[in-house]
Design a protein that fits this description.
disordered N terminus, two-stranded antiparallel ribbon, 5-stranded parallel sheet, globular
């Protein structure tokens, strides 16, 4: 019993210190990206959980600026790839080139691997759905396995490694939608909307003047990895674990969870959704400076965790239902 108490006591100052540091990081990003506090929080939750995020929003909502700012604030080596239909896997992963050494013994040929932009700590995959499925798969495999293989040789990606991909929900012509199994690789789907009028007014003066604000480094990559390890140590109450299981299992048709589920949902989230929700609520609790997550955290993060891991049935779409409304009804059972 005393060992448990000592472990709990030891983790409290570490949580408080990490919460204070991440609060400063959130504030630093907010000085550059206006009116997106909700989005900034969810991106931080994603990175603190050690996962990848899918940002969906119309052009001009500061998605690219946000990713660049996070890279500087969190001390990460940030890279950016603009996805296009002609992009090849080697353009992301890298490729081998044949070199001929010059010397007295004559030229000796050998292959040398040139790393692609995926070898960064924070990769922005801009408009990921514009690349072909072959190129998408190369990136998504690396996201899951944290290494790439070229010509039979393995190359580990830097740590930490995170992908923040963006999609434009309006222009779907000439795009290749991500398969459902690959969408599951993203911890959260983060919807980026328009800012309110006050934030847009601040943005006008800040970005069109002579002295544009610059992001400041608040966290190092090593500190971020330490926070990610700390997130996994945060205790989760049994009632919160049961709420996660109840919510995720209620979203699966054909499991006897309810007639509405079978009627409205074509296919539901797998076990990875439960894992993502467990990590995300721990990260949110730490970000808020709390020692343990609550059922309110489960309800708050249900939408970004589940939305890209389930699909509506034909009858649900005919009735005008949306994924957000269906998930909202499912979370009501947790109140």
């Amino acid at each position: 019993m005393s060992t448990v108490v000592e472990a709990t006591t030891d983790i409290v100052p570490r949580i408080e210190a990490a919460a204070a540091k991440m609060a400063r990081a959130k504030q630093a990003v907010g000085k550059i990206v206006f009116g997106q506090e909700h989005v900034i929080e969810r991106v931080l939750v994603t990175l603190m959980s050690g996962g990848h995020g899918l940002l969906i929003g119309v052009p001009g909502t500061a998605k690219t600026l946000m990713v660049e700012t996070f890279g500087k604030v969190l001390g990460l080596d940030a890279k950016r790839i603009q996805f296009t239909p002609d992009l090849m896997p080697s353009d992301i992963v890298g490729s081998e080139v044949l070199e001929e050494a010059q010397g007295a013994g004559g030229g000796r040929r050998s292959f040398r691997f040139i790393k692609g932009p995926i070898f960064g700590q924070l990769l922005m995959a801009d408009e990921i759905n514009r690349a072909s499925p072959k190129t998408q798969s190369a990136l998504l495999q690396a996201m899951q396995e944290h290494h790439v293989s070229v010509a039979g040789a393995r190359y580990d990606l830097p740590q930490p490694f995170h992908v923040l991909a963006t999609q434009n929900p309006l222009e779907q012509e000439g795009t290749y939608p991500l398969p459902e199994a690959q969408l599951d690789r993203f911890l959260l789907q983060i919807d980026v909307g328009y800012t309110d009028v006050a934030a847009e007014r601040r943005m006008l003066f800040s970005t069109t003047g002579t002295d544009a604000p610059k992001p400041e480094a608040v966290v190092t990559a090593e500190e971020l990895m330490a926070i990610q390890r700390l997130v996994r140590q945060i205790p989760v109450p049994d009632k919160v674990v049961e709420a996660i299981l109840k919510l995720v299992r209620a979203a699966r048709p054909g499991t006897g969870q309810g007639a509405d589920t079978d009627r409205l949902i074509a296919w539901g989230p797998g076990p990875r959704a439960s894992q993502a929700l467990m990590l995300a609520i721990r990260a949110k609790a730490l970000l808020d400076g709390r020692l343990a997550p609550s059922i309110d955290d489960v309800m708050a993060l249900a939408d970004p965790v589940l939305k890209h891991r389930m699909a509506l049935s034909f009858s649900a779409r005919a009735e005008g239902a949306t994924l957000a409304s269906v998930i909202g009804n499912l979370t009501k059972s947790l109140e």
